[in-house]
Amino acid sequence: MRTTSRSKSLLIAAATLAGMAFLTACQDEASGDDAASSAASTKAAGEGQSADQDSAADDSAADEDSAADDSTDGVDGGVSGTFGPGVVEYLAPNKYIVSVKGKDQQFFTSEDTEVHGAGTICGEYNPKSTNRCTLDDLEKNSKVGGVAATVVMKNGTATRVTEQAAPDEG
């Protein structure tokens, strides 16, 4: 009886060690695959970004599918691309969210972020969104309700927020 108990214990210990060795081996392979896949997606993402580098005045009629232009490019791992037209809402100081066709993307602002208004964020109604606004204007007006805008991001930080003029304004 003593040998039966001992053999069961040894069998359980061996099975546990074999299972742990198998799980460890799978993790090493998975992390190698992630690195290869990440490198491939970074290369592909970098190739298609040049179309998103327009000026703010020319960007008032942004791509209809620009929510699909997002990528995970850059050292910081933040998202880069053009998101919009969508709705920008305030989350916290220097932190916002843009909602485009049911997809939400959070982003940060910095002192280098350009904000262009079309009458809601700041200034008089201007369908070309050429009014230069401050980050304080964006914060104040996105707190009271969403602002229709297109956001250009690099590494998770907005480089430009361009308000989309409403067709019935003016």
Secondary structure elements and their pairing?
Blueprint: H1 2-47, E1 81-92, E2 95-100, E3 103-108, E4 114-117, E5 131-133, H2 135-143, E6 147-154, E7 157-163
Parallel strand pairs: 4-7
Antiparallel strand pairs: 1-2, 1-6, 2-3, 4-5, 6-7
Commentary on this structure:
It comes from Streptomyces rhizosphaericus. Residues 55-73 have a biased composition (Acidic residues). Helix content is 32%, strand content 27%. It is α+β, with helices and mostly antiparallel strands and 170 residues long. A 7-stranded mixed β-sheet has the order 3-2-1-6-7-4-5. The longest helix is centred in the N-terminal third of the chain and has 46 residues, at 2-47. The termini are far apart. Mean pLDDT is 72; it is low at 25-75.
Question: What is the molecular shape?
Answer: rod-shaped
- Percent of residues in helices: 25-40%
Q: Let me know the average pLDDT.
A: 72
Strand order of the largest sheet: 3-2-1-6-7-4-5
